[in-house]
Design a protein that fits this description.
Number of helices: 1
Number of strands: 13
Strand order of the largest sheet: 1-10-9-12-7-5
CATH topology: Jelly Rolls
Shape: globular
Structural class: alpha+beta
Radius of gyration: 25 Å
CATH class: Mainly Beta
Number of domains: 1
Largest sheet: 6 strands, mixed
Strand content: 25-35%
């Protein structure tokens, strides 16, 4: 297996040298056993007793019971509203993605991807507000792009990430061991046979960081594989 970090991609003022290198200069993390580092593109009774005391006690108990009943009703209502886990920021049964909100047309609507993520030049457009978790598979997808370190013959999924703020963005790809996957991060959906800013494939958990993601300037996260390898994956993109 191998990993490759090329020169920084150029978006707006980004360049291969200088302080605006969006992909940084560190090495990508290959998960367990991989090299550490980052690269750019990184919740009682009343006194005296007697009838008066008894009445007061009964009244207090009744009030307490009513309060408990109200609390129970509130809890039931809260529990009822919590039956739909969509928007909790985690992948639950039946979900393809979760971005921590229920906003429409931001790439993940109703915890389902808005697009197929299997075509360039746009891929699946993700508006990154805080974080998104995607659970999908490259199996059955088209082969429309590749990374410099692999993916020429394998099916792909491409995600165009649009940051809502300027900040480092961490990316993690997790796959089963039998999926010989490749993680690519760059400024375009397709690219000629030139080094990618990030192209890593050395473990079942691949992580990297876009050190200087800029608000309103998109970059692409591409999941592919070696040879014709494909399979399920979980992709997490977060500030």
């Amino acid at each position: 297996m191998r990993s490759f970090v090329g020169c920084a991609l150029v978006v707006a003022a980004w360049a291969c040298s200088g302080s605006t290198d969006v992909f940084g200069t560190g090495q990508p993390t290959g998960g367990s056993g991989g090299a550490n580092g980052s690269t750019g593109i990184t919740v009682g009774p009343g006194a005296g007793g007697g009838a008066t005391s008894s009445t007061a006690s009964s009244s207090a108990m009744s009030s307490s019971a009513m309060s408990s009943s109200a609390m129970s009703s509130s809890a039931m209502s809260s529990s009822g509203s919590g039956m739909d886990p969509c928007g909790n920021g985690a992948i639950d049964a039946g979900e393809a993605c979760d971005d921590g909100n229920k906003d429409a047309k931001d790439g993940c609507t109703g915890c389902m991807l808005d697009g197929a993520a299997d075509a360039c030049p746009t891929g699946e457009v993700i508006t990154l507000k805080k974080a998104i978790v995607i659970a999908s598979t490259t199996s059955g997808k088209a082969n429309f792009t590749a990374g410099f370190c692999g993916g020429t013959f394998a099916p792909d999924m491409a995600f165009q990430v649009m940051p809502s703020k300027s900040a480092p963005v961490a990316i993690k790809l997790v796959t089963p061991a039998n999926f010989d996957r490749v993680l690519v991060v760059r400024s375009t959906c397709t690219q000629g046979f030139t080094p990618d800013p990030v192209c890593i494939d050395n473990n079942t958990t691949l992580t990297t960081t876009v050190q200087q993601a800029m608000q309103g300037q998109a970059f692409f996260v591409i999941v592919t594989g070696h040879q014709q390898s494909s399979g399920p994956f979980t992709l997490t993109i977060t500030y």
